[in-house]
Amino acid sequence: MPNSFGKLFTISTWGESHGPAVGVVIDGCPPGLPLTASEVQAELDRRRPGQSDITTPRKEADSVEFLSGLFEGRTTGHPLAMLVRNADARSEAYDEMREKFRPSHADFTYTAKYGFRDHRGGGRSSARETIGRVAAGAVAKKILQLAGEVEVRAFVAQIHDIIAPTVTKFPTLAQVEASAVRCPHPATAAKMISRIKRVRSKGDSVGGVIECRMRGVPVGLGEPVFDRLEADLAKAMLSLPATKGFEIGSGFAGTMLKGSQHNDVFVNKRGRIGTQTNRSGGVQGGISNGEEIVFRVAFKPTATILQTQRTVDVRGASTELKARGRHDPCVVPRAVVIVEAMAALVLVDHWMRHVAQNGSFKF
Amino acid sequence: MPNSFGKLFTISTWGESHGPAVGVVIDGCPPGLPLTASEVQAELDRRRPGQSDITTPRKEADSVEFLSGLFEGRTTGHPLAMLVRNADARSEAYDEMREKFRPSHADFTYTAKYGFRDHRGGGRSSARETIGRVAAGAVAKKILQLAGEVEVRAFVAQIHDIIAPTVTKFPTLAQVEASAVRCPHPATAAKMISRIKRVRSKGDSVGGVIECRMRGVPVGLGEPVFDRLEADLAKAMLSLPATKGFEIGSGFAGTMLKGSQHNDVFVNKRGRIGTQTNRSGGVQGGISNGEEIVFRVAFKPTATILQTQRTVDVRGASTELKARGRHDPCVVPRAVVIVEAMAALVLVDHWMRHVAQNGSFKF
Amino acid sequence: MPNSFGKLFTISTWGESHGPAVGVVIDGCPPGLPLTASEVQAELDRRRPGQSDITTPRKEADSVEFLSGLFEGRTTGHPLAMLVRNADARSEAYDEMREKFRPSHADFTYTAKYGFRDHRGGGRSSARETIGRVAAGAVAKKILQLAGEVEVRAFVAQIHDIIAPTVTKFPTLAQVEASAVRCPHPATAAKMISRIKRVRSKGDSVGGVIECRMRGVPVGLGEPVFDRLEADLAKAMLSLPATKGFEIGSGFAGTMLKGSQHNDVFVNKRGRIGTQTNRSGGVQGGISNGEEIVFRVAFKPTATILQTQRTVDVRGASTELKARGRHDPCVVPRAVVIVEAMAALVLVDHWMRHVAQNGSFKF
Amino acid sequence: MPNSFGKLFTISTWGESHGPAVGVVIDGCPPGLPLTASEVQAELDRRRPGQSDITTPRKEADSVEFLSGLFEGRTTGHPLAMLVRNADARSEAYDEMREKFRPSHADFTYTAKYGFRDHRGGGRSSARETIGRVAAGAVAKKILQLAGEVEVRAFVAQIHDIIAPTVTKFPTLAQVEASAVRCPHPATAAKMISRIKRVRSKGDSVGGVIECRMRGVPVGLGEPVFDRLEADLAKAMLSLPATKGFEIGSGFAGTMLKGSQHNDVFVNKRGRIGTQTNRSGGVQGGISNGEEIVFRVAFKPTATILQTQRTVDVRGASTELKARGRHDPCVVPRAVVIVEAMAALVLVDHWMRHVAQNGSFKF
Q1: Considering the entire predicted model, what is its pTM?
Q2: ipTM greater than 0.95, yes or no?
Q3: Of the candidates D85, D39, D90, D91, which has an alpha carbon nearest to the alpha carbon of residue D65?
C-alpha cells in the first residue's frame, strides 16, 4: 500500500491537487481519545497556503470535515476519516505544461510510470497530499501529549546558506511560530525571510534544513533490526516532497569524530540512566534511550521556478518552459508542521508496537 | 515483523552473535533464477571478519548452507532459507560487560526494552545479523544483473576526515576491491588504511561515509507517496548498525543552491529522455528517472573501543569499563557489501511492485 | 490494519451506520482502467436497502461520489476514494437499546472491546460498512472483465430450509436478478420470497446459503502456503456480517467420499489440461487450476428481530428487549453482490501477486 | 509474504519435503516466556509420521533444533528460529510421477504457476511444511496457557461417514490422545480406526472433520471489519493442506433456524455477561464474547491413493498413474495438532493486536 504509512497506527492519504478533495483515513487509532475538529484545524492552518507573505498565494481554507470515527467527542477505535475540499485550483495556469516536462519535478517519472499525464498541479505529487498527513499528525500529537507529555517540535535551522545558531533549549511552540519562517532565533529568522523574498522576486527558489526534537519519549521505542526508530523516521522524512537527506544525532558531522570523542557516556540522572552528551540523538541500537530525539531533514529548493528553463516536451524534443501557477519560493517554513506530523506518527506507531510485544502477556 | 524487510521480495533475518547460527529466509523470490552457493559465498566473503589487517580478527568461515528453495540449480519460487554457523564466539571476553552498560551501544536500550540482558557480543544488535542481509543481497544482485544488467556499486568515500575525490566514473568492482578499505581512489585508500591502523593502535575507532551508485535502473521504480524509492533506501540504510545519516543526489549540500542552479534540465539522450545534471540522484517524485541513483550513508565511529570509559552499571552506579573482545576499529570497509545488499533488495522489491500494478493487466 | 483488505489491490473502508457518510479507498489500482461512476452505482443499487419488498425499508439513495483517482475517465494508479452519504438514519429507533444488549449482535463485544457504547444502528458493525466493499468490488469486476473475461456470479442457493436445485450451468446476471431473492431457479425463488415474507410478518428472520462461481480464471492464481486462494476467499467471506461457514468444491459433503471417488481426473480439454469433475472447486494446492471456482457461504438468520427477547442491560441485570428500527428479515439476497465483490477483490489481488513474482523478471 | 502468517506474532515456514530440512521463524514473540525444546518436541511428536499403525510409515524423528531467540531458558523477544532435518525422503518412489500429474494434487498447479516441476514428494505442498506450524503453535499454546489458562483442544469429530456424538464437555488432552485416531469418544474411535485400516488395505483414502474448541479466551479479541476472529480462523484452517470447509458455531446447520431460535440470549453468569446457548461459537461481530470458541474443519480424502488412476502427462497426453511412496490413508488424526497450532497462533496474534490498540495509552 504505497499510500499508507504505519503498521498499527496506519494512515492512508488520498486525493490530488486538482481533484475535488484530499483526505486521510486513520486506522488503528486507540479508542477514547478526546478530539475536536478545531485541534486538527489548528495544525492544518499551520500548513495552509497563503498564511504569510513568503508562501504561495493560493487561497485554500483547508477546512477539515470529520466523516467517521468520532462519537460524543472521543475516538471510537474505528477508522477516522477526514476530508478537505480543494477550492482554488486553477488548472489553466498549467496549460503550458501540458506538453512540457518540468525540470526536477515528478512530472516525467509519473508519466513514464503510469502511462498517462495529468499535467495540472502535480496531481498526487503535489504538496496538497500532505494535508492528510498533517491532519493525522494532529491526532498523533494529541495522543503523545495525553499519554506521556511527549512533545514534538520542528523548526527551521537553515534557509539557503543562512544557518541558525545551534538550539540549546527545547524551543516552545510560540518561539517557532513567532516568525513566518518558523526559525526560533529571531535575528536569523529576519534574514531568512528577506532572503526568501529576494529569491522570489527573481522567480527563483531556495531550500533549507528543518530540525526536529522530541522530548519525553519513553525508553524502549523502536524495533531491531529493520524497523529501528531512526530507520522509520528516515523513511518518514524522505517520503516528504523535496527532501534529499536525513541525519540523526551527530549525523554526517559525527563521521569526523573518533569513537572516544563520539561515545555518549552513561550517567545516573536523578535515578534514571541517561547520557551526558547526546551524539546518539536519542536512539541506540534503533531504540529510544530516553534522551531527546534530534534529527535534521534537508529540503532542496522548490523545483517549480518562474524563470525560463530549458527542457524537453513529451515527444523528447528540446523546448523551453516558463512556469506559471502559484508556488512557494521556499517550502521549508510550511514543511515544519509536516515534519512534526510524520515524527509523531512514527512515535505513536512504535509505541503501540512496543506495548503489543512487551505488554500483552505477563509470564 | 521487525526482523523482515521488503514487501514482495521479503527477507527475514534471525540469529544472535553468540548463538549457534545466523540466517535468512527470502520469501517471494522469482522462480527460475540460476543460483549457486558460491555466488552467495563470494559476497559473504566480502563481509566476513578477518579478511584483512584492518578488520576484527574474529575467525569465521561464514560458510553458507542452503536449506530450501533451490532445485536443480534454480530457485523454485518458494522460500530460500540460508544458514551460517557461528564458530569463533568467545563469550568470556564479555564478562566485564555482564553488569556494565557499553556507551553508545544497543546494550542499555535492549535491556530496558526486553527486560533481560544478554551481555555477550551484542546478541541481535551484533553486525553478525547482517550476514543474512548480505546473503539475500547476493540473490537480489543476481536478479538485477540478469534482469537488466543493473549494477549496484558501493565504495568508501570518507574515513574520519579523509575524503576521497568525487567519483566521476562508475567504479568497477575490481577498483573497489583493490584496497582493504574499499575506496576506489588508490592514494586516498592508502591514507585511510594508515589512519585506521593508527586509531586502532590507540584502542580507538573511526567512522566514515559510503557512497552507493546504481546504474541501468529502469525508469519508473518507486511508489508515491510513502514508499518513494529514496524513502525505502533511507530506511534500508538507517536500519544498518552504526548509521547516522542518509542523503541522495545533492543531499544536504543541495540546500545551499537556488532552484535555478539545482534543477536538472531534461535533455534528449539518444532517444531517451534524460537529465543533463544529476542533482536529483536518479529519483524524481520518489520514482527512478533512468539516471544513476547516487546516495551516501554516514557511519559513526564504532562504539566499542578498547579504552577505559566512564559508564554506569545495571543498578545505575557509576563505574568504568574497558572493553575486550575483538572489534573493528572501523566498520565502514566491511559495510560496503552490506550497503550494496540493502540497495539491491530495495530495487528488486520495487521492481516487482511496479510490475504488479502496471504490468498485470492490459486495458 | 483491521479495516483494510488485500495486499496489492487494497481496500480500506470507513464509516458508521449513523455517521455522516461511509466510504472506501482503493490503493494499488492499476492505471488506465476505463471507469465511470455509473458502473459503480449499478452495483451499489443491487446492495441498496429498499430495493424490493423483502428488504429493509430504510431509504438510502446510496449515491457514490468519486473524490480522487480518476482522470479523463480512467484510473490514474493513485488512490481511488469513494464516498456515500448516509441519509435516512433514525437514531431514535435505537433508544431502547441504549442500555440493553441485543442478543447475537456485535453490540456487547464492541462495548467490551472499546470501552464505550454507540448503540445506534450497530455503528461500524452495520451492514452499511459493506457499501465500500461493493463499490471497490465493482472496480475489481471491471478489471477482471477487461483483463480476461473473468466472470464472478453469486446467487442464493438456500433460504431457511428451502434449497434450490444444484446449478448445472453458469447462471447469467439476468437469471440471478430476475427475482428479488436472487435465486436463479424461478420456482424456488418464489418459495423463498414467500418464506421471507412469512417470517417477517411474525417479526422473525431467516438465513441461508449463497453460492459463488467464477469462470475464466487463469491457471496459477493463489499462493502457497498461507495465502492459498481458498484461504483468502474463506477469510473474505467470514469477514462479512452474519456469516458462519465457508466451503469450496465438495466442501463438508466431500468428507463422505473416498479418495477414489473424490479425485478429479485430469483430462485434455481441447489442448489445455483440465479435470473431468470439479470436486476441487477450481483450486488445487491453493492455486487455481483453470476450472470454475465454486464456493458456498452460510449466513445465519438476522440477529435483530422484532420480537421480545430476554437479555441483560449494560450493568448485567436481566431485562427484555423488543427491537425497533428497520431491519432485513433476511440479509441473504442483498449479500449476493457483497459476496461477488469480495470474491472479485481476492482474485484481482492474487492476480497482481502472481504477476509480481512470476512476471517481473525473465531469466 | 505468502509463506508467513500473523501480523504481530508472525511465523514464516520454509522447506520442502525432499530438501535437507524444514523450519520456521517466529518474529514478534514476547520476551521472557519460559520455553524448552522438549515442549516443542512433544507437539511435533503428535504430528510425526509413523506414530501409529494408521499413519504413513515414513520414518522421521522430526527432532527440533533451536537456532536463535532463547537465552537461559527464556525467549528474548528476537526471532525464534527452529529447524527439523528431513531424514527418510525416498525420492525414487516418485519416479513414475516425473511426467504424470497426480489427480487432485498441487502437482499440476505448481508446475503451471512456477514453470518447473519438482515431482518428488510434493515439494512445498507436502504436509511436512506443517512441521513449522506445529513448532510455532507449541510456543503460542505455551503463551496462552501462561497468560490466561486459555486451552486449545482439537479432536476428530468425523471420519468418512462415521460421526462421533456431539461433545458436551471440553475434552481433556488425555481423552483425545487415548486413541490413534484422536476421537475422544472411545467406541466411535474404534470404528474410525477400522474404517481407516479397511480403506488403506484397498489402496484408498478417506477424509473427515476436526472440531476445535478454545476456552478461557478473554472477551474482546478480534478486529472489525476484515480481521474478524472467525475470518482469521477460517483463513488459518483453509491454509492447511486438504481442507475444503470451515464453520463456526451453528455453521451451515444454523441456516435452518429462525432468528428467534438461533439467537443466543444474554444472561448474567456469576457476575460476567455470558450467553445461555452458544450458536455464535464464541464470537459476535467478529470479536470473542467470552464463551467457548467452537469451529469445525472439513478435510477431503487424501489425494494420493495406491490405485491406478487415469490422468494426463506433462504434455497433456492421456495416461495412467499408480502412485507409490508412503502416504497417509487419512490425514485427519495427524492434522489435529496442526489445527490446534493454527488456532493458537490466531489467538496470540489477535491478543497482541487488541492490547496494542486498547492498552497502549490511557486517556
Answers
A1: 0.97
A2: yes
A3: D85
